Structure formats: structure tokens, C-alpha cells
Amino acid sequence: MLDQTPQQPLVSIENLRVEFDGESGPITGVKDVSFTVNPGETVCVVGESGSGKSVTSLSLLRLVEFGGGRIVSGRLWFRPGEGEAIDLAQMPAEKMIDLRGDRIGMIFQEPMTALNPVFTIGRQLTDGLRRHRGLSAAEADARAIELLREVRLPEPEGRLRQYPHELSGGMRQRVVIAMAMACRPQLLIADEPTTALDVTIQAEILGLIKRLKREFGMAVLFITHDMAVVAQLADRVVVMRHGEKVEEGPVERIFADPQADYTKALLASVPKLGEMRGKPAPEPLRIPGAPEPAAPKPASRSETGRAVLSVKGLTTRFPVKGGLMRRVVANVHAVENVSFELGHGETLALVGESGCGKSTTARSILRLVEPTSGDVVMDGQDILGLDAGGLRRARRNMQMVFQDPFASLNPFMRLRKQVAEPILNFDLARGAELEDRIAFLFDRVGLPRDFMRRFPHELSGGQRQRVAIARALSVNPKLIIADEAVSALDVSVQAQVLNLLMELQAEFGLSYLFISHDMAVVERVSHRVGVMYLGRIVEIGSRADIFEDPRHSYTRALLAGVPIADPTKRMLKESIEFKPLPSPVFPVGEVRPAPVYDEVAPGHFVLENE
Amino acid sequence: MRKFLSAKALIGLALVLTVVAVAILSPLFIAPERATQMVMSARLQPPSLAYPLGTDQLGRDLLARVMLGAQTSLMIAVLAVGMSIVLGLPLGIISGYFGGRIDNVLMRIIDALLSFPALLLALTISAVLGPNLQNTIIAIGIAFTPFLARIVRGEALRVVQMPYVEAARAAGTRDGQMILRHILPNIMPALIVQATISLAFAVLAEAALSFLGLGTQPPMASWGLMIQASRQFLDLAPWTALVPGAALAITILGLNLLGDVLRDVLDPRVR
Question: In angstroms, rounded to a whole number, what is the distance separating the alpha carbons of residues A541 and A551?
Fold first, then answer.
């Protein structure tokens, strides 16, 4: 299905400019962007939030108009079939409807919301087929089953009658891809299609897109913020920033010899799996253009001293209620017999995929959710035995930094007050002393002092996360639990915040419990790593143990799923078979066997019994 | 500040101020008799020089009645809604914030109250307490409380789940401070919208009570009473309904505009 003249681009974007209506005049989303996509080619548009990468792709389908945007100028040439190129920017709205989903398919980021929850999978899959291809109901159903088979969804026949909530995130994203592929589009636009997915599933989905592209000779316009995904997938790369194209080129050239400073910074900011091999302690990232980060002192982990935090047999279950009397019919075993110790000035990372119980473990330690059983000893104090007042006082020693910096600050409160709140709660300082302390905290996390008077919405995501860190630091805690604290940030900001966390650790001797799904970030920051799967720790050991000598099959799968930010090391398998995650829901009274660990090396434990 | 002086704010403010001024000043300048004086020879007169807004079925001057009625209607609406906030806000917040058994008990009571139409509830309360102005306010205030409590609870439930509440809890914030600093400001937008809408319904509820003889007692004038009385003459004399209707519409429009502005002013994100 390749075009006879491959020089002729399938898509040619010329001087695109998109504006949005703002309160004080128009805001420019895309300033002046031009690039082409050839038939059968994968072009990755990469950039951070606000770079205009999504707006560019939405403009091509003219979907940007539904979000209040306007294509002010520029041409969007598209060559449907064998015909002449047409300018999508000038197309009447009715004709665009015929094009969408037919010649151009689109995959969105969030598989949970891209499907309509009240219609069956079959209905949503066949809609486009019946509209664009005029198939009968029976023909469309047959084709839909074929499509589900193409995207490797198990038992495709039964799926048509299922509703989206009956499928997992990865399965839903396969359905979304099947929908986009339904009419054999010439161009597939994928807007961050794997960002919301776990790494092992991400690898499956990327492999699937790659295979579909090769089998059907389709061009792919792939929008992402993740340089590692770019390295794995792209033929050509367009780097965008602030609505403008910064750099464009073949993927090998971009990675081997980036020209623009921004591209260099972007590449340097990404922690790469394996680059910490052989290094004894966490190390800050080098960010070009920023001052050389001070190497943190090696953690003063006293080998003899007792642990700051000691967790034994921690178990947290959530009841599933059902029936007329709302009786407990089953339990979700979110955290199952988890034990570990965290030393002074040490970072222990808990990694795993969504639903593995790593966040619940963190919240159980702080008793933000009540654990079912187990022991949590913080600095010699039994946390689970405390009454409400005692717990409140104990929390002074352990603070938390949350994932979403947009939701973890009160939008109605000035930042000064938010940072002051914990200090006032424990009456640690008053008057001038309080002001000094707040000013010190703002200085320490690298925020200008005049930000104190601001509200959260006036700050960027990275700045907000700095406020959240200042708030956590304000009471001089011994332990900070960082729950996916950098996951929502752009890579360059993520690098800065990670460096800040490492600096603070060296300065204040903090212990971190670092919850993350990102193996490369974990390799950067942690001394020890615990891998969680289905509520249990399946493997725990030093960073070197886990990353250089993984023993448990799940740890290996997790490491194998991480995309490598190097286009010469492509690791995507096009035929990864789908394997569904077992359920953590057990009947009431179910007793799970206590975990048995094998100590394969000093301090390196691997779960023996599943 | 720029936002506060927008056209929306100015119009809303102008409308509300006018209505309030009329309500306060009318009794000082217009003799109460003007509103109750019946002229049998001038029944259902269209607007003219003598009667700028026409007359009703008993020959009473609609201009005088609508101006004097403003006080009754506004007072009842504002006090009744104020009462429903005083009762409903704490109920809703306690229910949504503490949850569990307290929430269950409170919400079953609220549900029981909600299962009666608000008007029937107001009617019952008014009938039990006896028909006078004060009891009308109490009746409407109580009847509106469950709606308000429900909305406040829903918002409180939403806010309690926000990470900033969890963050504050992890930072050792006590329940009282949590409610004052974190919960209350974040449910204000919804509360303001609900309150402005409730004001309009309160004016109409008073009308319905009056119509059944349990609200404002004739010959005293209120907008609701006037609208109710006009229904038999809609085809003959539409102005009898239009005059109080327009007064009500202007008031509600002004309150809604002002409510929007107030909500924006309180919200640092839009300011």
C-alpha cells in the first residue's frame, strides 16, 4: 500500500499557527511549525507540557477547534489514497467528519476515558465501520472480531458484548487502537498513548503499534514526552518547545549528535537505565546550562545504628461490600505481609506497577489508611498502637510528598500559609522565628521569596512540587515518603526536583521511602530497592543487587519492559503475548501463606513461594 | 480587582442595589394605603398616566404594590435562605467530612425530609406554626435546608478526597482547622451558586404559601402573592403577571450576576 512516489509526503504541515482565546487577547498554542510525514514513516513529536505537540496533532484532525482553538494560518496538506493533496485547514467541517477515523485514526492518552462507559466494545468498534464503510451489522461484527485479533486481545469473540469497565487499562488501549485501525487509516495519530500505562504494558502497546505500522504500511505521528519511547519507535523526530520546532532530524542523528541546546538538555535530563552501574551511591543528574550539581556526601548510613523505620508483616486489606445488607463479601489484599527496614539517611525505593500496593504501603505507614495488621516502628515508636493524639504528634517525624502537584496544594491558600501550616500545627515557631523559617525553606527549595504571597495556580508543576517539598521539610522530619513525587513532572523539571531531593538528603540526613514506577529514576536515587507485585515484596536488596543481578522473574520482566533511550538498541518485541494480571481480591477469611524469602546474597532477598 | 469591576459585576451590582433601594425606600415615600386602596371603577386597567403599570383585579395600583411588595419578598427570601445556610452548611460539612455513622444518620434524616416536596414541607411547618411572616421564613428556611445540606455534603466529600486534605492531615492539622482552612473555602463556589438559585425559589415558595393562605396575608403585598392572583386574568390583563414577574426576574438576574462575581472574587484561580 506504499505510495508509488515515496518522495511525495503523506502529510505536509506548513507554517501552522494555532491560537486560543485567552482572557486578555489570543494565546498562541503553536507559533510557526512545519514538518512532513512520509507514507509508512513514524514521526515522533517530542516536547514537554505546553510545547504545542498535542495541539499540532489535534490541528491535523481539526479537533483543536473543539477545544476553543483556531487555526490562524498555515496549510495542512494531506494526500488521501492516490488522489491529489488537500488542505485540511480549509476543509469544510462536514468533509472533515468523513476523513476522521477513516483516512486518519487517532489514539488518545487515557484509555480509561477514551471509551464511552455506557456502550459495549462491539458498538464502539463497529460505529466507524458502519459509518465510513457502510457495512451491515453482521459484517461489521465480523470485522470487529478480526480487528481485536489483530491487536492481540484474547478471546475476541466474547469481547464485543463487554463494557469498557470489564477490561484492564492495557486491554482498553488495545480496543482504542483497534478502533483507530478499523478503517485501515493511512495515518495513525497517537497522542501519548502509553503514558498512563505500566511499563510492561507500555512495551506491549509500543510493539503492537510497530507491528501494525509495518503490516499495513501506515504512517504514524507519535506524540510523546518520553525520549526513551522516541528512541525505540521513531524514524524521524521533531522536537518542540513553546509552540515552535526546535530541531528535526532522523532519530539516530538526534540522539547521537543533537544540535539545539534544548535537545541536549532534554536528553541529559532523562535518567537512563543502566548508567548507574558500578556506582556506589545515588548521584545527581547533570543538566546542561545549570550549575554543576554538588555531589552529595555518601549517605551516613550507620551500619550499627537501628533503623529509622522498621516495618514488619504489614498487611492492609480493603473490604468489598455487596448484597442488600452491605456485608463484606471479599477483601482486596492491597498490601500483604510486607516487611522492610529503612536506615538513617538512606533511600529505599518501592517499585512496581499500578495496583501492586506500593502507594497503599506508604499510606499505611502514615496511617492515612488503617492497616489490618503488622508492625510499624518509627524511630523506636510503635505507630500502629498510637491513639489519635499520639499519631498526630508522631507524624511530625514522617512527612509525605504526593504525586500530583496540582492537587496536593489547597488552591484557596497562599503558599506562605501552606508551608507555615505544619509548623503552626506543632507550634514549633512563632512570630519572627516563623517568618525566618519559612523564608529559609523557600530559599532552600529554590523558590523566590516573593512566591510566598502567591496562590498555587500561579506556579508551574515543578515549582508547586518544590512548595510541597518545603511543606514536608518545615517540621524537620526524619523520614519523607515521596509517593510518585516526580512522575507528573516534565523531564527537565523532574531532573531538578530529583537533584533537590538528593541535596536535601545529604544536608539534613533525611531518609526517603521513594515510591515510583520508573525504574530509571529509581536506579538514580536509591540505595536499596524493593520490588512489589500483587501486594508483596517479591525481591528486595541493594540497588546493585536489583539492577545488576535481578533474581525474581517479575523483577526481570519489569527491567526488560523499560524502553532504552538509545535508537541503536531497539528492544521492542512485536509479538509479546498478552498476559492478564491476577486478581488481588480474595474471599473473606482467606489466609495467604506467609512469604518465605531466600537470601541469595547478604541483604538480597527473593520471594520463594508465590 | 479588574475582574471585580467587569461589566457583569457592574450590571449585577446595579440591579441588586436598585431592588434593595426600592425595598428600603418605598415605604418611606409611598403611603402603605396606595398599595391596598381599591378603586372599583379602575379594575384591570392597562398601564396609563394615572397608573404607570396598570391595576389589578381589585383596582389597586400595581406600581405601588410591586414597590411595596419588594420589601416583603426580599426579606423573606434572604432570611429564609440565610436560615437554610445556617442549618444546612454545618450539617453537610459534618456529614461529608466525618462520614461513617454520623453521615448515615444525618443523611437518612435529610433523605426523609427530601422525600416530601419542599413546598409541602413548608406548608406543613407553616400550618403548624401558624400563618405569619416570621413563621413563613422559618418554614421556607427549614424546607430548603435538606437541599443545601445535600449539596454541601457532596462538595465536602469531593474536597475530603483531595490530596491537599491528605497532605494537611499528614502534617498534623486538627479537624477544626481542616474544616475552616481547607474544606470550607473549597466548597464556597458551589454554596454561592446554590444560595443565589435558592433565593429565586424562596420568592416563589413564599408566593405559593401566600396563595394557600399561609404566607403573606392580604391585603399586604408581596410579589409572589401578586403573581398568584394574576393567573385568572392572564388573557385579559397580562400586565398583572408581567409586572411582579419582571421585578422577580430582575432581582434574580442581579443576584445571579453578583453571585458569579462573588464566586470569582473568592477564587484565587480566576481572580
Answer: 11
Q: What's the half-sphere exposure (Cβ side, CA atoms, 13 Å) at A336?
A: 25
For the stretch A322-362, pLDDT in tens is 777 778 888 888 899 999 999 998 999 999 888 788 989 99
8 Å CB contact between A462 and A493: yes
Please give the tally of structural domains in chain A.
Answer: 3
pLDDT at A17: 92
- Whole-angstrom distance, CA of residue A185 vs CA of residue A205: 18
CA distance A261 to A218: 32
Selecting from A396, A412, A421 the residue whose C-beta is nearest the C-beta of B168 gives A421
Could you list the residue range(s) of the whole structural domain that residue A522 is in? 309-589+598-607
d(CA A246, CA B219) in angstroms, rounded, equals 78
A125 and A79: one domain?
A: no
Half-sphere exposure of A91 (CA within 13 A, CB side): 23
- Same domain, yes or no: A231 and A379: no
Nearest to A231 by CA among A175, A287, A201, A272: A272
Put simply, the answer to whether B163 touches A412 (Cβ < 8 Å) is no
DSSP string, A167-231: S-HHHHHHHHHHHHHTT--SEEEEESTTTTS-HHHHHHHHHHHHHHHHHHT-EEEEEES-HHHHH
Domain ends where: A182, A210, A230?
Answer: A182
In the prediction, which pLDDT does B271 show? 56
Of A214, A249, A269, the position where a domain reaches its end is: A269
Interchain proximity A408–B182, CB inside 8 Å: no
**pLDDT tens, position by position, A2-20:** 444 456 889 999 999 998 8
Q: Is A410 on the interface with B (CB under 8 A)?
A: yes
Number of other residues whose CB lies within 10 A of the CB of residue B132: 14
Residue A274: inside a domain: no
Q: Has residue A300 been placed in a domain?
A: no
Inform me whether the C-beta atom of residue B166 falls under 8 Å from chain A C-beta atoms.
yes
Q: Which residues pair with A22 in a beta bridge?
A: A25
A168 lies in the same domain as A249: no
Nearest residue in A to B171, CA atom: A422
Same domain, A143 and A263: no
The verdict on A193 and A78 lying in the same domain is yes
Q: Looking at the structure, do residues A169 and A193 belong to the same domain, yes or no?
A: no
**Nearest neighbour of B173 by CB, restricted to A368, A421, A468:** A421
- What is the average pLDDT across A246-268? 91
| pLDDT at position A307 | 85
Confirm whether A295 is domain-assigned: no
Q: How many angstroms separate the CA atoms of B74 and B62, rounded?
A: 17
Looking at residue B56, the DSSP 8-state letter turns out to be -
pLDDT band for A581, please (50, 70, 90 cuts).
low
In a domain, A287, yes or no: no
B7-30+56-266 has CATH 1.10.3720.10 classification: yes
CATH number of A79's domain: 3.40.50.300
Assign 3-class secondary structure to B64-116: HHHHHHHHHHHHHHHHHHHHHHHHHHHHHHHHHHHCHHHHHHHHHHHHHHHCC
Cell of residue B169, nine digits: 492531615
What Cα–Cα distance (Å) separates residue A487 from each residue in A343, A402, A484, A514, B256?
25, 10, 5, 12, 41
pTM reported for the whole predicted model: 0.82
